[in-house]
Design a protein that fits this description.
By secondary structure, the protein is mainly alpha-helical. About 75% of the residues lie in helices and about 5% in strands. It is globular.
């Protein structure tokens, strides 16, 4: 398990970096769209087990915020994308109402795919269009993944006190603290390489905020998996599970970084 985890990260990390750094906005957009579609497929497979006819409508509906961000490239596109997802989910459940024992519950779960995956992923589309967009996407990925690794290995090594045992028996308070420390370390390294023109305190603040929100995203996916009675969202990434397992923290942290940059006035460069 440990070896597979490291090997997968060693292969996937350089690939993602190459696409982000040298692939251009178009290739990165295609990569993000594909990853989002796989996440949504895993999400709907978890939440609608055995109900195959939900998968395609669910994935298409969930991608509407991402498509809107690609088309308009403005924050307002998030509103139109989420409205489109709400409208499509409404129509789907109007015509499939008789198929559900609790249509309202399933309708909520259906729309949640667009809210969690599509809406959050759309912020990375907008972030890529900002001045220095490559650098900020890299900051997001490296910081959150570093915190994820820190939480995992510190928790395995010295973790004693359970963080949220009702959701995850493996997550510990010590691991959570280790994750935040690695968030800070990653931000410090990236500041020294890419962001020396910015106030270090801003990057450290964003790193801590993303780290905390990212850990909440990890626990949020645990709610989904526990409700489904399944350990991993998929098997695509050996040692990690599915794509959704790998990016749950990134998804929830992306909007926070995007709006944090806008509040700091950095969306103009």
């Amino acid at each position: 398990m440990h070896g597979k985890r490291i090997l997968t990260a060693a292969v996937l990390g350089p690939l993602v970096f190459a696409v982000l750094w040298w692939g251009g906005a178009g290739l990165f957009g295609l990569f993000l769209l594909t990853a989002s579609a796989i996440c949504l497929y895993e999400y709907f497979t978890l939440c609608f087990q055995g109900v195959r006819y939900v998968l395609i409508p669910g994935v298409v509906t969930g991608l509407l915020p991402v498509f809107s961000a690609f088309f308009w490239k403005t924050p307002g596109s998030l509103v139109s994308g989420c409205y489109g997802a709400l409208l499509c989910s409404t129509v789907f459940f109007i015509f499939s109402y008789r198929s559900w024992q609790n249509a309202l519950e399933k309708w909520t779960v259906f729309f949640m795919g667009a809210a969690y995956v599509g809406f959050c992923a759309a912020h990375m589309v907008l972030m890529r269009e900002m001045p220095g967009g490559r650098e900020w996407i890299l900051f997001l990925l490296v910081t959150v993944f570093s915190g994820d690794a820190g939480a995992y290995y510190v928790g395995k090594g010295i973790g004693r006190r359970k963080l949220c045992p009702a959701l995850s028996s493996g997550k510990t308070v010590e691991g959570a603290v280790g994750g935040v420390l690695l968030n800070l370390a990653a931000a410090l390294v990236l500041w020294s390489v890419l962001f020396r023109h910015l106030d270090l305190r801003l990057l450290l603040f964003l790193a801590v905020a993303m780290g905390i929100v990212g850990q909440a995203g990890d626990l949020a996916e645990s709610i989904i998996k526990r409700s489904a009675g399944i350990k991993d969202s998929g098997t695509l990434l050996p040692g990690h599970g599915g794509i959704f397992d790998r990016v749950d923290a990134v998804l929830l942290a992306a909007p926070l970084l995007y709006w944090g940059l806008k509040l700091a006035g950095l969306e103009q460069g």
